[in-house]
């Protein structure tokens, strides 16, 4: 009898257990979005003696793509395992290497099904998807319109009030490190904000950090197509992400509620106002990570602060205090942390009452002269980074971060 449920088995025994969890979450999101054909939890009992037909199975696969709620990592791994068992039979492929974290977790889930017959796996898959679909439907029916709109976002909170649309990064436990999902959601939120009736758009962070920059697990989540494809896709994502700041048509304000790292600092050069708490710091440790500047900072920073100071930040990774960032022109104004939120929002509410079209057109006059140049810089920076991410310097730096965390 094969193990019947890997939910309590320890599939992530490696030292980087926390990392694997994150990797699985990223992978599973792609799977549910439809880029992979996925699968279901192994149930012990089939509903019918006949078992599910191939048609039922195909319907269930389609239903998975339409799920409105994330069923969670364990379920998604089991969906994968049952799908593989139902279509290919018992796992007989070699176990992936210790650093191939995602494929190893998938392999373990599939392998845990042992010799479960294909028909049983197919039925269990159908049963599981059916349970997931009905609970997903009933919970979404109960949601009011506003909740459903917010439900489009998992990693940011988007609100509109007093002529201001606020996009708040919402992974405080991870210092608002930017996952691939988060890049996508920020782009979607910016797109929505550009079309809504608000006057000003604000980006801020929840918790003690503004953002710790790119989530370093993004680089370890390698798809089956390999690392080159990963680097290429990441460069496209980066270019699109930065592009959405370059093209943003309304006044864009950063409310920097705490330390900012990496890409959350570099794109500040594309904002119209940057308000910072005196607790904020501004750090671009690209060289330490074997990486190079992005967010158009190779162009905007020398213009804002002069080449010497830009080099200190972008090449040598000097961390600036809020006061220093203000002195260099990267920050518009610094506020004491104790009154930061009150002062900033009072100011922004007053600004949001100014004539909307005049604000928008003034921004466009200022920014339009630079747009073409900024897009060219963005393309170049993204393509250089695509190469960098494949370098041993970069890979070693990322492994170092996680090995220290995992106390290897
Ligand atoms: C699509 C690809 C586009 C790529 C664009 C490229 C962008 C380049 C950059 O942005 S470079 C900057 C990358 N960021 C970093 O190097 C920061 C790494 N993090 C840290 O150095 C520290 O976490 C810290 C200084 C931000 C905070 O330190 P502190 O000791 O206060 O807190 P913890 O380290 O315990 O952090 C709490 C948990 O959050 C996790 N975490 C924080 N930042 C990141 C991150 N950038 N990536 C992944 N994970 C991050 C941290 O690991 C802790 O997790 P845990 O609770 O599970 O241990």
TrEMBL record:
Please write the reaction equations for the catalytic activity of this protein: (3E)-octenoyl-CoA = (2E)-octenoyl-CoA; (3E)-nonenoyl-CoA = (2E)-nonenoyl-CoA; a (3Z)-enoyl-CoA = a 4-saturated (2E)-enoyl-CoA; (2E)-tetradecenoyl-CoA = (3Z)-tetradecenoyl-CoA
Q: Which pathway does UniProt place it in?
A: Lipid metabolism; fatty acid beta-oxidation
* Compartments where found: Mitochondrion; Peroxisome matrix
Example GO molecular function term? Answer: delta(3)-delta(2)-enoyl-CoA isomerase activity
Stretches assigned to the ACB domain: 53-138
Q: Which UniProt keywords apply?
A: Acetylation, Isomerase, Mitochondrion, Peroxisome, Phosphoprotein, Transit peptide
EC number(s) recorded for this UniProt protein: 5.3.3.8
Q: What class of enzyme is it?
A: isomerase
User: Mind telling me which SUPFAM superfamilies this protein's record contains?
Assistant: Acyl-CoA binding protein, ClpP/crotonase
The segments labelled Disordered in the record are: 132-151
Q: Where does the record locate the signal sequence feature? A: none
Q: GO CC annotations?
A: mitochondrion; peroxisomal matrix
Question: What role is this protein assigned?
Answer: Able to isomerize both 3-cis and 3-trans double bonds into the 2-trans form in a range of enoyl-CoA species. Has a preference for 3-trans substrates.
Q: Name the family the entry cites.
A: In the C-terminal section; belongs to the enoyl-CoA hydratase/isomerase family.
PANTHER family, per the entry: ENOYL-COA DELTA ISOMERASE 2, PTHR43684
Q: What's the protein name?
A: Enoyl-CoA delta isomerase 2
Q: Which organism is it from?
A: Mustela putorius furo (European domestic ferret)
């Amino acid at each position: 009898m094969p193990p019947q449920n890997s939910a309590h088995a320890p599939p992530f025994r490696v030292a980087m257990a926390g990392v694997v969890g994150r990797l699985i979450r990223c992978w599973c999101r792609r799977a549910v979005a439809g880029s992979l054909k996925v699968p279901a939890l192994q149930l012990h009992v089939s509903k019918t003696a006949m078992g599910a037909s191939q048609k039922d199975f195909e319907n269930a696969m389609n239903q998975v793509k339409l799920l409105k709620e994330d069923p969670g990592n364990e379920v998604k791994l089991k969906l994968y395992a049952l799908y593989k068992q139902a279509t290919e039979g018992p796992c007989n492929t070699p176990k992936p290497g210790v650093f191939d974290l995602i494929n190893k977790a998938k392999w373990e889930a599939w392998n845990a099904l042992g010799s479960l017959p294909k028909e049983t796996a197919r039925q269990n898959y159908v049963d599981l998807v059916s349970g997931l679909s009905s609970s997903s439907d009933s919970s979404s029916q109960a949601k009011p319109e506003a909740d459903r709109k917010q439900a489009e976002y998992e990693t940011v909170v988007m609100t509109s009030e007093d002529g201001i649309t606020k996009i708040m990064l919402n992974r405080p436990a991870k210092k608002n490190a930017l996952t691939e999902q988060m890049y996508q959601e920020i782009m979607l939120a910016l797109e929505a904000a550009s079309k809504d009736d608000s006057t000003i758009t604000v980006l801020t962070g929840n918790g003690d950090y503004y953002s710790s920059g790119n989530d370093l697990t993004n680089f370890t989540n390698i798809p089956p197509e390999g690392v080159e494809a990963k680097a290429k896709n990441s460069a496209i994502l980066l270019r699109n992400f930065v592009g959405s700041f370059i093209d943003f048509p309304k006044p864009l304000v950063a409310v920097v509620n705490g330390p900012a790292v990496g890409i959350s600092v570099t794109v500040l050069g594309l904002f119209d106002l940057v308000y910072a708490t005196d607790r904020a710091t501004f750090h671009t440790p690209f060289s330490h990570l074997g990486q190079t500047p992005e967010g158009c900072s190779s162009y905007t920073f020398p213009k804002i602060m002069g080449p010497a100071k830009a080099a200190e930040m972008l090449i040598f990774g000097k961390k600036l205090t809020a006061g220093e960032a203000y002195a260099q022109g990267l920050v518009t104004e610094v506020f004491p942390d104790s009154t930061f939120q009150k002062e900033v929002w009072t100011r922004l509410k007053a600004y949001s009452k100014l004539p909307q079209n005049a604000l928008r057109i003034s921004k466009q006059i200022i920014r339009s002269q630079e747009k073409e140049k900024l897009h060219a810089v963005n393309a170049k920076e993204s393509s250089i980074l695509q190469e960098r991410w494949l370098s041993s310097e970069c890979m070693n730096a990322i492994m170092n971060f996680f090995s220290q965390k995992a106390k290897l």
